[in-house]
Amino acid sequence: MNMRLVCGSIAALCLMACSTPSPRQASATPPTTVQPSPRLLLVSIDGLRADALDRGLTPNIQRMIDGGVRARWMTPSYPSLTFPNHYTLVTGLRPGHHGIIHNSMHDPQLGGFEISNPAAVTDARWWGGEPIWVSAEKAGVRTATWSWPGSEAAIQGVRPSQWQVYDRSIALEDRVQTVLGWLAQTGPQAPRLATLYMENVDKAGHTYGPDSAEYRQAIQRADAIVGQVLEGLDARGLATGTNIVLVSDHGMAELPEGQVLDTERMVDPAIAVATSVGQPVGFQAMPGREREAERALLGRHDHYQCWKRADLPPRWQYGQHPRTPPIICEMEEGWDALTPDMLARHAHAYRGTHGYDNTLPSMRAVFVATGPSFKAGRTVEGFDNVDVYPLLTRLLNVPAAANDGNPDTFDAVLRPR
Known about the structure:
Layout: E1 5-7, E2 39-45, H1 59-66, E3 69-71, E4 74-75, H2 82-91, H3 95-98, E5 104-107, E6 111-114, H4 118-121, H5 132-138, E7 143-146, E8 162-164, H6 172-184, E9 193-198, H7 200-208, H8 213-235, E10 242-247, E11 253-254, E12 260-262, H9 263-266, E13 272-276, E14 280-285, H10 290-297, E15 299-301, E16 304-308, E17 327-331, E18 336-338, H11 340-346, E19 352-353, E20 367-370, E21 378-380, E22 383-384, H12 388-396
Parallel strand pairs: 2-9, 2-10, 3-21, 4-22, 7-8, 7-9, 12-18
Antiparallel strand pairs: 1-8, 3-20, 5-6, 10-20, 11-19, 13-14, 14-17, 15-16, 16-17
């Protein structure tokens, strides 16, 4: 198998200080030992819309639903992008608190962040908060991650006991075998938490759109991979002792051809430059030209609206972090904004996208869970994805770090210990 597994830990790197309101506080004195709990597998199908589960395409996920719990939908945090929401799922913090405020962003001390830049992705100073694998490792519970965003950095000086660097060339089937191998390990160093990441649905959604045959086929393939997980756990005698939580990070919306704006037509680049693009577009004024930038951008325009950071809609809970650009423009659903060079490369490449207002139905994400800790055949109403982290700590029986989630969301669907 063409797989590169990396294990161990490195010296701690300092985290960026964040002048934001304090999230909900958790116990300050974690126990040195924890009671054994079922294994936990956290699975992400990137870009899977909540309503995709009602299309008759996902018989294996339906098996999970029949034997466990489904949310009608899960609301992503704003902005509804991949890295901010994957990291929210495992920290319980909104992007305005954990600092991954976009897939591309700028920090005065750290420079630029792009999800394709390994130097940035592995730099722990970008990653605030405490992801679930750090919470678990600190409590003596071993973890293994298949390339969950954030897991390639030594956050708080802690890495998962075993982890895989992201490599899109590794087949989904091979990823499953690696994760099943982790879960089958025995002894005190065996991981009790593992994660699995699949990007094929998101890729098909971007390239062909969420109503395309290709998007449906990608959903069916992801569901087949879930079937391999379920069968593999059964074959190894692990099914009755493993909880599975399956999520997506956001949904997907249609992007009709031609509905892409040039960021340099939104404002003269001599006045302000775009520091992030897509659906939430961030602008930084050139020195001494702040007033001009505000006059050019603030307010409603054809196909987008712009706010100063401090004036963003409160329901987005987004503007607190200092990395948030001074001016944010949110595109209307079905519109995109790119720099001229990106337009030249990608203007006709995409038929679907995300990053829009997180409350739009098209942006809704998936939550399904099954295993010994969950009651069977239950449905929960829509909830915010910050609630997943406190659930994960509860399933692993480890102390939760400070977070924005509601620890009571799943009370009615969990079995008594």
